[in-house]
Structures are given as C-alpha cells and as structure tokens.
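User: Second chain of the day. Same drill as before.
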Amino acid sequence: MTLLTLVRHGETDWNRARRIQGSTDIPLNDTGRAQARDVAQQLRERLTTGSPVIVVSSDLSRARETAEIIADTLGVDPPRTYPQLRERAYGEAEGVDAAEFLERWGDWHSAEVPGAEPWPALRARALAALQQIVRDARHTTAPASASVIAVAHGALIREIIRHATGGELPPVGFRLPNGSSCDLLLERDRLRLLSGVGPVVAG
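Assistant: Same format as last time:
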C-alpha cells in the first residue's frame, strides 16, 4: 500500500480573478509561492522520518513550481512531471470568469461546455495516473515503501476524492483551497481517503 498526499497548486492571478484555467498554463503568483512554502513546511513536520518521499506533479507550471518548492523544502529529488495530472480541459470556458460562466452555461455542476473534457474521462485519467505514479515510485524506492506527494489541480483532485468516498465528498459547491492537501491510501485498486479535504492537519 502507498500513502498519497494530493496537493492543489498555489494561487495564480487567474485564481484570484476567479477565471477558469483548465489546461491553460498560468504561473503562480507571489501568494501562490507563499502557499507552496506553507504546505511544504507542514508536510515536513508530519512526514515519517527516514521513509523515502517522492514528489510528482502535473506538467503545468503552476503545479510544477508548487512541487519544486515542496521538494526543495523537503530536501528530496526534483519532481517528475506527469501530463496525466493536468487539470480538466474546460474548452470554451477557459479564461472566462465565474459570472460569465454562469450567464453562458448555467450551474457549474450541470453545465455542458463545448470542448470540455467529460467528467468520467477526467476521473479515469486521474485514477490511471495515480496507478502509474505509484508503480514508478515503487520501482524507484524498492524494497522501501515511499510516500508520494502529487501536486495537481482542483477538478482532478475532486474527482479522485469523489471516487475514494463513493461520491460523498467533497460537498457540492466546496472549492478546494489553493495550497490545500488531503491524504489517501492506495492498496492495489482500492483508494481510501484518510484526512480531511483541506489544509494539512498535523498528527
């Protein structure tokens, strides 16, 4: 079994403006870099001493830089990037702010946006990515068992959590904060949520 910590990337200017990013490559802003340092420090305080740690991320710059800050703080190898961890592609909605989205397509959870990646496809992609990441981590650290920190994106992380909880979490309308994290346990094909959907909790 493998302990997985999923971290949402730090803030970008588009996050601050409530503009939809999706697959558009928007960099961190200074607040986002500070959030990355904060979550890195929290992770450093709670990780098991002596156990190997692997940091990975989406290849989009906002996730990659967050992961680089975490890896540097933890003193581990630079992150390997996985395009499969990219945010959901939102098609015509990318670059649109929340008010315009509502006006053009209606409620976020039922909207049919032209060109957007279907939710089932996003979930399948995310779960396949986790399996690949864990296989790679085991190959790298065997016979020791590594903890994996994966920096990704809000919609993708939400789909993983929904899968792990049978759709119970996160609550409808809940936005994963930038720089937040959650812990999951992957045992073969079973994924279980261990910690809350929010900032890292010590202990």
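The first helix runs from residue 13 to 16.

User: Great, on to the next one.
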